[in-house]
Amino acid sequence: MARKKNMTAEKIIDLYMSTLLLENEIPKTVYAFAHANNFEESEFYKYFGSFEVLEKQIFSLFCENTIAMLMENEDYATYTPINKLLSFYYTFFEMLNANRSFVYLKLAQNKNKLDALKLLSKLRVTFLKYIEAEIYEQTIDLKNKTLNSISKKGVNETAWAQLLFTMQFWIEDTSPNFEKTDIFIEKSVQASFDLKNIKPLESVLDFAKFLWKEKTMST
What we know:
11 helices
């Protein structure tokens, strides 16, 4: 039987995710994976240098597809920064919900947390580009390049840590339809903006109470 040609990155990703979830392990080799799915090994290397590169791309695509969906909404451009970020989070986690088995396998069941974090490196780049362009482009100008660089780095690291924290909460969430994750998103995003703008800390305290309640109920 002739091998399939003109494979796309999307088709290879779909085949890889299906293989991984059905067999619960990474294919032994690229050749074995390609042979089992009836396409030439060279088709894989047109897009990916390894399975690790492919997996990193999958997590980045979750973010890229989220941003693309947001941009298709004509009203999105009129949103305030906080509503833009809320829209991103809700859409992004809908994407994760649709692929929960894969995400759970790669992040929650991976005993090596450092390896799991490495898989998110391309997601981090894509996410921070979005943050800089859409959310925090109007940060305070400190009239000093060094201070501005420090401020930008701090904002980026805080935004990334918040996304990781939310993903961890979602992974551990067992509520129906992940309702608690929705609450977590609403309260954490509101709190992050209140802290950024040095507003009254009511939402921050509200978020802290929510976390405390979740921890005490789970023990």
